[in-house]
Write a structure and sequence with these properties.
43% strand; 15 strands; six-stranded antiparallel sheet; mainly beta
Length: 148
């Protein structure tokens, strides 16, 4: 199992100083969340599909920023060994929360400055924004996106 320090060395990304860089980064084969994102096994979301014309692209060697926090800080970056992960943003999601779908043949990792890293086992995955009930800026209580 890889530790956070080794993962950061490989990727060139960084996390905040309060995180223990010697901690092992778990590789999870199931539902997982990191801040305002949730990674879901594609088999758990049968109503979510890719478009017939979807273009699957290899994950760039430097990774790909999936989303940034509200103030433009704290990106969630997906990284993997070159040639082991491809993704598409061309996703049809009835909930309109999908960011991308990806397929990986080796562990992929989601890295965030405040949360550290989490490993994603090989498979096909849907990445969504998380939502919660809350105050929708003066419009009363409703469903809002989680802001990380």
């Amino acid at each position: 199992m890889m530790n956070l320090d080794a993962l950061l060395d490989i990727t060139g990304l960084d996390v905040l100083d309060h995180l223990d860089r010697q901690v092992a980064v778990p590789v999870v084969d199931g539902l997982q969340a990191q801040g305002d994102l949730i990674v879901i096994p594609a088999g758990m979301t049968p109503t979510v599909t890719t478009w017939p014309s979807s273009r699957w692209r290899p994950l760039p060697a430097e990774g790909l920023e999936l989303v940034r926090g509200i103030a433009g800080n704290n990106p969630h970056t997906l990284v993997a060994e070159p040639g082991t992960c491809e993704l598409t943003p061309d996703v049809e999601d009835p909930l309109r929360l999908a960011i991308a779908m990806f397929t990986n043949t080796a562990p992929a990792y989601l890295i965030h400055p405040e949360h550290g890293g989490t490993g994603i086992a090989p498979g096909r995955w849907l990445v969504r924004r998380q939502r919660e009930r809350g105050n929708s800026r003066g419009r009363g209580t409703g469903v809002v996106l989680v802001a990380d």
